[in-house]
Amino acid sequence: MSSITDGVATAASWEAEYANGRYLEEAPVSFVRYILDAAADAHLPGEALYVGCGNGRNVEPLADAGLDVLGLDLAPTAIAQARRRLPERADRFQVGSLDDLPSGATWPVVIGIQVFQHGTRAEAHRHLAAAAERVAPGGLLCVRVNASATDVWPAHRVIELGDDAGFTVRYTEGPKAGLAVHFFAADEIRELLGPAFTPVRDLSLDVTQREAPGVGQWSQWEGIWRRDGA
Fold first, then answer.
1. pTM of the model
2. What is the pLDDT of residues 19-38, one digit of tens each?
3. I need a labelling partner for 104 at 20 to 30 A (CA). Which of 21, 88, 135, 165 fits?
């Protein structure tokens, strides 16, 4: 499957998930409070870019705390749900990707929660690197992504395995059947960001035990970095 086809399939998969009510009633992830604390401690301007904002469940507490969030998502249904959730901010939600933003535009805070892992290793790296380029000097990059400690479920096959223990699977069952998804190693993320990004909240694992019929646990790396240059 080509990267273009994979990307289209991923967008279509998430469109179907949101249309079926995925995350509609779920609370914001706890990582949001760390983002707010870091932004407050850094005394940053109140603007943020949220890549893969979904239905707005994580945007709501950010906006309530005073951040002016521009939310992007490839799924039109997700954006429609976000606009209904926050009608006073409807014009701040946009269907699209980083490629649809003005060239060279940056933000004091850039957020990606469970989004940069889609695709092969190379594609996941490009997603994260592209987001990092959108962080203004002195700004924050706030990331939550799949971790290689995850018990991957449902059925899948491993299609890539890196020397750093990061790996990619292609699911053969479930809502992501046919799609490639990457699971990051900690050193992989640190090397990708390089010396230009200094940890504010170093990588830590957030582990969730799956409820039946799920099996095992799902691990996510969470980290916040400050871009040098301010």
1. 0.94
2. 877 777 889 999 999 999 99
3. 88
Tokens standing for 210? 């799956």
Class of residue 64 by CB neighbours under 10 A (exposed 0-12, middle 13-18, buried 19+): exposed
In the chain, which ranges are continuous DSSP H helix? 3-19, 31-42, 59-64, 76-85, 121-133, 186-193
CB crowding 88-124: b at 16 or more within 10 Å, else e: ebeebbebebbeebeeeebbbbbbbbbbbbbbbbebb
**Residue 67 in tokens:** 């951040």
pLDDT tens digits for range 141-199:
999 999 999 999 999 999 999 999 999 999 999 989 999 999 999 999 999 999 999 99
- AA identity, residue 141: L
| Model pLDDT, residue 6 | 55
State the amino acid at position 197 in one-letter form: F
Contacts (Cβ under 8 Å, ≥6 apart) of 2: none
- Considering the four listed CATH numbers 1.10.3720.10, 3.40.309.10, 3.30.160.20, 3.40.50.150, the one that applies to the domain covering 3-227 is 3.40.50.150
